[in-house]
Amino acid sequence: MKSPNNLIDEQRTLKTRLSETYYPVKKQQDIQVPAAGQYSFDNYLTAVQISEATPQFNFEFKYRQKTNQPVGSGKVLHRALIDHDGNQIKKIVKWYYRSEDVVSRGLQFFDKQGQLLAQSRPGFFTSPNKKQEIVLEDGERVLGFKGASDGNTAFYYDIQFVIGRME
User: Fold this and answer.
1) pTM
2) For the segment 100-148, what is each residue's pLDDT rounded down to a tens digit?
3) Residues 6+ apart with CB under 8 A from 87
4) Domain spans, the chain
5) 14-166 domain in CATH 2.100.10.30?
């Protein structure tokens, strides 16, 4: 179909992928934002609520969708803006305890220049703990989050990010 200025209009399709986990997913992933199948390229991860004192997280998306898990007793999460236009996040590093069946221990977000955008619990980012890097390709955005909650707080098992691009 041609538009008035004789350019061909292209139909673009949203393609998504799910980030891997370090250990196999064993728990029911009961937290998913946005809901499965409700992903949009225009609704991307904009902020994370984190703390340097605890491995608890909450995630916020452009259209005000967010995880709202309560924070454990005596802990406070701080909101960190990490992406204002959908093009800032280049790499996410997830940190895990050295054995399975333990909550995710930390997250780091980096921009295209390798600069740290936000991190939680930096004292945990050393050996013998395990890390896993998720690198976004050019044109990709973080469009969603999946994880298994511990049921009471913002601790998560088996964190995965839904990553998307337009093709």
Assistant:
1) 0.87
2) 667 788 899 999 999 999 998 888 888 788 889 999 999 999 999 999 8
3) 141
4) 14-166
5) yes
